[in-house]
TrEMBL record:
<keyword id="KW-0433">Leucine-rich repeat</keyword>
<dbReference type="InterPro" id="IPR032675">
    <property type="entry name" value="LRR_dom_sf"/>
</dbReference>
<dbReference type="InterPro" id="IPR051261">
    <property type="entry name" value="NLR"/>
</dbReference>
<dbReference type="InterPro" id="IPR001611">
    <property type="entry name" value="Leu-rich_rpt"/>
</dbReference>
<keyword id="KW-0677">Repeat</keyword>
<dbReference type="Pfam" id="PF13516">
    <property type="entry name" value="LRR_6"/>
</dbReference>
<protein>
    <recommendedName>
        <fullName>NACHT LRR and PYD domain-containing protein</fullName>
    </recommendedName>
</protein>
Length: 338
């Protein structure tokens, strides 16, 4: 018989209060085995598993990879369906035990490389919009969520109940379409997002322009943006430079490593950094030696701190009494001279 999550939780709660630990002992075996996706569990057993999660003293972090079988077949629940099942019961358990001090909130959800798709993102989106959600960090890196999945997460970011502050989407098959969804979310008054990692995605200049437009919005709270290996050229740097000069931008850290920005891109970013409105404190950037020379002269003239990293060496150039600025330039291996 399939009971509703609420009834199953009620039954488990009664057994727990009566001191019956048989169900807990039974489901702990599944947790230790890491085979939740292949387990055939009743609704009450699922409720017991989630209750154990939420009363664990180390639960501030939930890592799905610990509970997914590496040998997927037709008898295994997909990671998307496992997410849907878990988050539905998470919500019910938290609501049912709102006054139970043993029940803790999940603050960090790690789903890196768990084969999550847009279907799983729908479950995440619903969980993020729940008024009981306390999730602050979400790592979805190395999943095929695509633009469709990013749109679902972005819709959740606009919800006033969503408290997410850090979102990692490295290598998730995202294009400028997904960046458009994220840009819209960042401009929302409700979004609490402070850190966004879009590294190793096909965002390119079109996507970077959309994110840059969001950085200019007074509602945008983003402070850290990682665009490592995103196909950014000088055109994207022009958009970022414009954002850096905006009085509204809160950006403190920018990673443009492994992009073909060229001399023109370096100059545009440098121009943005000279602006008094620019709040950037750390810039990671790939550059050939001639680019570094341009940066070196730029920052000496603007009295900022620069660290130029060449392989394992760090060269200190100048200190300012007005602001601390860190720039990391990775030089090509075959061109190490400064």
């Amino acid at each position: 018989m399939n009971r509703s999550p609420e009834k199953s939780i009620n039954l488990f709660h009664c057994l727990n209060e009566l001191g019956d630990q048989s169900l807990v002992s039974e489901v702990q075996e599944y947790l230790r085995s890491g085979e939740l996706s292949s387990a055939r569990l009743s609704s009450t057993q699922w409720s017991a598993i989630v209750f154990i999660f939420l009363t664990s003293e180390q639960l501030d972090k939930f890592d799905l990879s610990k509970y997914i079988s590496r040998e997927q077949n037709q008898n295994h629940m997909t990671p998307d369906k496992l997410l849907l099942k878990l988050f539905l019961i998470f919500k019910c358990v938290i609501n049912f035990n709102r006054l139970d001090t043993r029940v803790k909130s999940v603050l960090f959800c790690r789903l890196k490389g768990c084969s999550v798709t847009a279907e799983g993102c729908a479950a995440l989106s619903s969980a993020l919009r729940s008024n009981s959600s306390q999730l602050r960090k979400l790592n979805l890196s190395e999943n095929n969520v695509g633009d469709a999945g990013v749109k679902l997460i972005s819709d959740a970011l606009k919800d006033p109940h969503c408290k997410l502050e850090k979102l990692r989407l490295r290598y998730c098959g995202i294009t400028d379409e997904g960046c458009a969804s994220l840009s819209s979310a960042l401009r929302s008054n409700s979004s609490q997002l402070r850190e966004l990692n879009l590294s190793v995605n096909n965002a390119k200049d079109a996507g970077v322009k959309l994110i840059s437009d969001a950085l200019k919005d007074p509602h945008c709270k983003l402070e850290i943006l990682r665009l490592y290996k995103c196909g950014v050229t000088a055109e994207g740097c022009a958009a970022l430079s414009s954002a850096l000069r905006s009085n509204s931008s809160q950006l403190r850290e920018l990673d443009l490593s492994r992009n073909n920005v060229g001399d023109a891109g370096v100059k545009m970013v440098s121009d943005g950094l000279k602006d008094p409105h620019c709040k950037l404190e750390k810039l990671s950037l790939c550059a050939y030696s001639r680019n570094v020379q341009k940066l070196k002269h730029t920052f000496i003239s603007t009295e900022t701190i620069i660290y130029i990293r060449v392989c394992q060496n760090v060269i200190y150039i100048k200190r300012t009494k007005y602001k601390n600025f860190l720039i990391i330039c990775w030089l090509s291996c075959h061109n190490r001279s400064i």
